[in-house]
Amino acid sequence: MLFNSIDFAIFLPIVFVLYWFVTQKNLKLQNLLIVIASYVFYGWWDWRFLSLIIFSTLVDYIIGVLLSKEKSFSKRKMYLGISIVVNLGFLGFFKYYNFFLDNFITAFSFFGQSISRSGLNIILPVGISFYTFQTLSYSIDVYRKKLEPTKDFIAFSAFVCFFPQLVAGPIERATNLLPQFYKKRQFEYEKAVDGMRQILWGLFKKVVIADNCAILVNTIFENQESYSGSSLLIGAFLFSFQIYGDFSGYSDIAIGTSRLFGFNLMQNFAFPYFSRDIAEFWRRWHISLSTWFRDYLYFPLGGSRGTVFKTVINVFIIFLVSGFWHGANWTFIVWGFVNVLFIIPSVIFKTNRNNLEIVAQNSILPKWYEVLQIITTFVITALIWVFFRAKNLTEAFYYLSKIFSASLFQKPIINSNYITIKWLLILLLFLMTMEWLGRKGKHALESIIPNCNGYLRWLFYLMIILMLVYFGAKEQSFIYFQF
User: Fold this and answer.
1) What is the DSSP string of 240-275?
2) From CA 258, how far away is CA 266, in angstroms rounded?
3) Which of 73, 88, 156, 359 has its CA 20 to 30 A from that of 349?
4) Is 332 within a domain?
5) 199: which residues sit within 8 A by CB, 6+ positions away?
């Protein structure tokens, strides 16, 4: 079920009414309702894959119980190993089976050996990368004794399959989200209103920005041989806004929806396109994934403890694994590799933590050199995104080579039958203005809209709704559903 669909517009109010008016007095019933609603939400896409979520839930719940009773270090390690193997085994099979098979065949073909392909037609279950990492966080934290294992199976099931963030995050830690299922929730009007505000802004970013950028981006990337380098550069810029509007829009809707039900999820995006260097960008982009890799892979590898060379190797591993997590394609691995090349110098010279605070923290406008840093970081990021968007490495390198050709200085010409570049630029300017003004909050509208006059506030909401109706493109799935 898509957030930007009529189905969800009907589903959400029904669950909301049942949650607050029918089951409010019984915590277990509330949690059970969340489980049932989440299974309906996920099963709307393909009910057969519910078995994977249920099995993963059972495995990690049982592992938690066993870890709570076991004192032996070797047996505790064995139980954790079972959780890791089962979860990553399912993820590896569904996501990477055909990738490894194709590369195996290619490797033999290189040496003149011909092997017939008999791969399976495997459908990637939506959200498997997200809920797999979420359940793993529980097993690992219980193993580390950072979290008491739960004996409440319904609460644990609700934690695993919580529908707002089930299929594309944020990837919640058990230490943050699971305890919220133990406590009685009270409806908080201000929290719910801000949740609705965040949902509205998330829909704007997805439906108006991302989906309209997608129309032009698809045209450019699928016909790149027909466009000049300047047009391809614009295509790369537009994809940067498409993926940001798409993914951060999903996160806003997920976090806002959770607030309607009395839950607090972690911030997943912190205005990354106002970053002054690549290291800052990755602290502000997909925060739930980057901090997951930091806590469960980077730190166990040694983190920044030890020599600079060891730290560089650890950072290198993190970005390659992150690239591979995103998809079974060499484009994602190269995307991770190129990102780490830009970050390594800051690690070596220890400048990677220079920009921890939001830009222009105590002023309305940034300084001239901060503007230059933001633009430079955005351009570098946009060019690297080409690997993320391209179907294969050949297409990616061709695209970039054409950008860095003499045709870069030609007048860009982009044809579209749906929305003109002029209107899209106006919408992008509106997006970035609102994000800049609200950059100190957890979402763009958190601080600036509540302080407006009541009439202005409702006029703003009406304007966003009219833009959703007028500029709303054909219903499109979220990009990160494929991961």
Assistant:
1) HHHHHHHHHHHHHHHHHHHHHTT--PPP----GGG-
2) 11
3) 359
4) no
5) 252, 253, 256, 257
Say if residue 174 is in the same domain as residue 212: no
- DSSP for 411-440, please give it: PP----SS--HHHHHHHHHHHHHHHHHTTT
Where do we find the tokens 């079972």?
82
Instruction: Determine, yes or no, domain membership for 146.
Output: yes
Q: Total structural domains in the chain?
A: 2
Q: Which of 169, 186, 203 is the last residue of a domain?
A: 186
Threshold 0.70, pTM exceeds: yes
Tell me the C-alpha distance between 133 and 285, whole Å: 17
User: Residues 62, 64, 70, 73: is their CA dihedral positive or negative?
Assistant: positive
**The domain containing residue 401 runs over which residues?**
190-276+355-482
pLDDT for position 201: 96
Q: Which residues are catalytic?
A: 326
CA-CA distance, 158 to 264, in Å (whole number)? 14
pLDDT recorded at residue 91:
85
Same domain, 203 and 144: no
Q: Which of 19, 33, 42, 25 is nearest to 481 (CA)?
A: 42
